[in-house]
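Could you please review the protein record set out just below?
***
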Amino acid sequence: MNLSSFAQTKLRPPRPRPGWVERGRIDADLAAALSVQRLVLICAPAGFGKTAALARQTASLAPSTVLAWLAADADDDLGRFVAGLVAALDPHDLPWRSEPDALVAALDADASAARAVASDLVNALVATEVPRGLIVIDDLHRIDDPTVFRFLESVIERLPSHWGVVLSSRVDPPLPLARWRARGELREFRQDALRFTRDEVSQLVARHAALHGGAGAADAESLLARTHGWAAGLGLVLGSPGRHAGGSVSNRHMFDYLAAEVLDAMPEPLRLFLLRCSVLPELTAPRCAAVSGDARAAAWLDDIERRGLFVSVLDGQEPTLTLHDLFRDCLDDRLHRELPGELPQLLERAAAGERDPVRRIGYLTRAGAWAQAEGVLCGVGPGLVAAGGTVQVLRMLDHFPPAVREASPPLAHLRGLCAWAHWDLHTMWSALDQAISGFERTNQPAAAQRSRALLTIGLTAGGAVEKAAGLLAQMRGLPLDLHTEATAWQVESWHAIATSRFDRIAEPLARTVELLERSDDPMLWLQCVPLTPFIGQPGTRTAIQRWVHGAWRRAPVEPPTPLRVLAHALQGGLQLWAGQVDAAFETLQRVERDSRWLNRPPNVSGYHLTFVCLVHALRGEREAALEAAQAEIDGLDDARQSGRRAVWLNHFLFFKLRVAAICDDDATQREVARQIENNHSAAEHATFVRERATLPARLAAIDGRYADAARSYAQALADDPIGIDLHSQALEVRVRLADALLRTGDLEAAADALRPAFAQVAASGEPAGALFAGPRALRALAAAPWGHRLDAGQARTLQAWAQGPATRTAPAATVPPRPNAAPPLIAVVLSAREREVLERIAAGDSNKLIARAFDLSPHTVKRHVANILDKLGAGSRGQAAAWFRAHVHTTD
């Protein structure tokens, strides 16, 4: 998942211009500061040579110093800024423990998310084993998003000692500079430090005279007086025919100088070429030719560089120039005045060649090409949402003015899709209502149907079941395309859950999967993911397994995506319900690693936590089971106030109670029962009220009132055996009923209660519900003197249930590296590929070399490195390499 791509100019420093004078004082002072300071600030108005000074220093850094260069842009909000920073750091193989793009995707207005991402970045910097690292952020004044500066403050405050941050800006950034200045952690270079001295101006004039003739010492004195050492003014006056004219050069008059002495002195074809290409942030021959329509673009760019105009040169795969801000502003002003009719077309041409969707949409919106911008965003948006890039899509939506967004049904649908991905139900309902109205008003019935289908899912999830059912009936009366019909059947299966008709899930689920198998759209597969309560219900196993296999075929193996991880989570659930508890444990460990790498997206975490707490409980790992169950409850505390907590809280509390019951934890069951009693919500699903019909029986059994418990269990089964069967509770209750009857001494009735349980497990092959009765009940039943009441096969089944999982211990724990001792490689359960990658790390190979050696993507290599560090308990690539060398030494 690569959520952003950036131009070379954003991530590489410009090349120092040849033939420039040596600036010993400022260069020496800046070099010294870069070598030791936590923070360096270069702050001066435009044209004082801030970027040039940094370019000279970065070109002469010690080979052991690593550099991450990021040029800020006006459209950089927090997410785009961090994405650029991640991209700038990428060549240096930081040992990320979560997928960097997933961290970027998590960023929004939520301050806690920004703090978490800052922590991940700082931790990765801490574990990067370099003598000195520098993060340079040029043109910081272009950013006005306050969340960027809060993020920067958080990073700089915790920056490890071997890293430094360099900020270049025209104005002081809104950061706690006084605090850092008082601590001695800040070194500042302002315009007085950047001004050319008398000696430097003399050298500059002498060099110019040697090359072009005509200037002398008197010119140097005059030039210094006119420019006050301002670098841009020096370059302009020396390069212009009128350099001997009187008056001083100031920033305020730069437009006039540029226009009169640079632009107007150019050949007309070159001037028009520059005007048209000024819409581009960086100039390359192919893009300039496409935008300007001038086939001589390569020659013009050579001419521009040769003339020494206000451009920087970037070395890369193709020659690239960037315009100085003042020069670009001047060109932009002239373009608007001289060629206003061409501007929209120029911007549209620029958009056509732009790979970055954020920039592309920015061009189109500047051109007023709202329909084209809408088409681009609606084309890439669903795929980005499916890959976890919801926040990026929301940022692109914000490029559109409110009036355009309000009038656009496709943009409203896309906003509803983003809200669905975040479980922001209220926003989802509002946006999709708007989309449906707009599509109907513009006579787009198929699009309106898709919005209705998605809305029914959101309404059902939010407890508005009757409204959702009415909307579904309305949909069924109109033609449905494959996408909408698949979603409609998905909603039918959800409604079976919402109305406690769990025996009616299988048919709509099967129809959903049949339709999905005719589509390769990952967003549709993700939208139609089976719910966790579907597992264990009558006739659902085959359809769920088909969904899992289909999702695996349509999702890349690497890097992991939410679709693939959800498929693994459901596979773990299927293994769990089949009684393959240790296999489920291993599958869910993979889900945990992948989910952590994706920065724990909420839709994945819910599936993972549901199954993992049950697995821990069946393995006898009580604390881990209850911690996972509580994490599900805590996940309902969302910042958007979507209404999920009111609808779902008691369900998840009761689920935690059931997990505690599997662990025979009576105290936790009593405590959770009190929490349920104290939480009354009119918004709660009726199906969740029905599932708690067994709560009085459970509490009676905890108190030792087994006759009361037996009567209550039996009543719940008689009243609504289907309605209580969320997560196979009916099978669990039959076993608990038998246990309660056994403890009253009624073996005959206990055997009668067990026979339907045996029959159900034999028919389905899914004993998990019986195992949920917990070891105390199962062992008592297995030890009972059944005699003729149960046959030999039934008795063996009871013994197997009582035995539980064959292994109740976790796989070998990972071990941190220790001096002179290393565990065998096999003990840390590295995969064959991970062992190969570790060997390459120990040999000093970068991620890029490892990717090339094994024909892997860079994202895949990052994943392998993160897994290796986790399994070894290592904090850095160097520690992992040391671990490997110690192992090889001790085993050779």
Summary: The beta strands are 39-43, 65-71, 132-138, 163-169, 186-190, 311-314, 320-323. Residues 644-662 form the longest helix (19 residues). Residues 241-247, 806-827 have pLDDT under 50 and may be disordered. The chain is about 65% helix and 5% strand.
